[in-house]
Specification:
Elements lengths: L1 H28 L2 E2 L11 E2 L3 H17 L13 H25 L3 H17 L6 E2 L8 E2 L2 H22 L5 H19 L3 H21 L8 H18 L4 H7 L1 H16 L12 H7 L4 H21 L3 H22 L9
Antiparallel strand pairs: 1-2, 3-4
Length: about 350
């Protein structure tokens, strides 16, 4: 179908066009990252490139409704339009908040509040975790309403914080987003969800176009506007794809483990959970002498490997087993990269 090819191509080209525009806007508005403190880059870099990610994706969402019907796959889900609208409202909300955060640099509590609000938006538009496959039986596990709310809030807040914290070196968060979008698109196409796959393909095109400018050495950073947009979009697509929680966790397993370790480390040492430091895994790998490109390619290889495992796994039990293997391997990598003495925040 033409739409399956046209939409990712359009978003890729739009991202290539919009990213230089976002660079000019950042310079005009003074939204620039200067070296110093935790920021170890060498030059002043514009930090609202996420505008291009958001803008190109929104155009693609519109195309999924405006293109001729013969160009688009049909949908068998009567509630797909409601979820489409929820995705649009949610990404717009988080992108606007992220842009304000890039301007005013809010503390952690306003950010947590915005993340909570975004999760509520998703629930209102029936993008939530209602059930998961049972690895030990044929019937799915269906959650009660309270647990649906708690799990969905945790899912969205976790995804947005993971992408936000991952965006510490050039191209890292964007590369991970590319791989997650690709794996979700392949999964959707393989399971007959072509109409929903259009959205994953659109995100793939947007992220690839932006990565041209964001790959190290980056000419632009995505900023909070991009990190919040990508985190929300990936979390929502993982649920719209049929609650593919295990699939997303497998692909993003290493970044998620690093976030969990970092939260534990800060709690153990009495540090505020939202306080920035250089204890993230990618910073520790930099300290061990790896280049930014090596770290990005290493993360990408790790995520792609487990993405392939998630696509090839024949059962939910196989995916759970892969998750356990990921937990062990990721924990080893984090332990190996951890300093033997405490690292102080900078």
């Amino acid at each position: 179908m033409p739409g399956l090819v046209l939409i990712p191509v359009v978003t890729f080209i739009l991202a290539l066009i919009l990213t230089p525009i976002s660079i000019r806007l950042a310079r005009r508005w003074g939204l620039l990252d200067t070296p110093g403190g935790r920021r170890q880059h060498h030059d002043t870099v514009p930090r609202i490139g996420g505008i291009a990610l958001y803008g190109s994706f929104v155009v693609a969402m519109a195309l999924t409704r405006w293109l001729p019907a013969a160009w688009l796959p049909t949908s068998s889900d009567p509630k797909e339009a409601q979820r489409w609208l929820g995705l649009l409202v949610g990404i717009t909300f988080v992108a606007l908040f992220g842009l304000l955060d890039d301007r005013f640099e809010f503390g952690p509590w306003p950010q947590y509040g915005a993340q909570l609000g975004a999760a509520v938006i998703s629930i209102v538009f029936i993008i939530f975790i209602e059930r998961v496959n049972n690895p030990f039986g044929p019937t799915p596990i269906i959650f009660p309403p309270l647990l649906i709310w708690l799990l969905t809030i945790f899912w969205f807040m976790g995804a947005m914080n993971t992408i936000n914290w991952l965006d510490g070196i050039d191209g890292l968060a964007t590369t991970v987003a590319v791989i997650v979008a690709l794996v979700l698109a392949v999964h959707m196409l393989r399971t007959g969800q072509q109409s929903v796959a259009l959205l994953a393909l659109a995100l793939l095109g947007s992220a690839l176009g932006f990565l041209v400018f964001n790959f190290p050495p980056a000419r632009v950073f995505m900023g909070s506007v991009g990190a919040y947009f990508l985190g929300y979009a990936l979390a929502a697509l993982g649920l719209i794809a049929g609650a593919r929680v295990a699939t997303v966790l497998l692909v993003m397993g290493l970044p998620v483990l690093d976030v969990a370790w970092l939260i534990f480390w800060r709690w153990r040492h009495g540090r505020p959970l939202g306080q920035g430091d250089r204890n993230h895994l990618h910073f520790r790998l930099l300290a061990k002498g790896f280049s930014e490109r090596q770290i990005v390619l290493g993360y990408g290889t790790f995520c792609m490997l487990f993405g392939l495992i998630s696509l090839m796994a024949a059962s939910t039990l196989a995916k759970v087993s892969a998750l356990l293997a990921l937990l062990a391997l990721g924990a080893f990598v984090i332990w190996w990269a951890s300093p033997r003495t405490e690292t102080q925040p900078k």
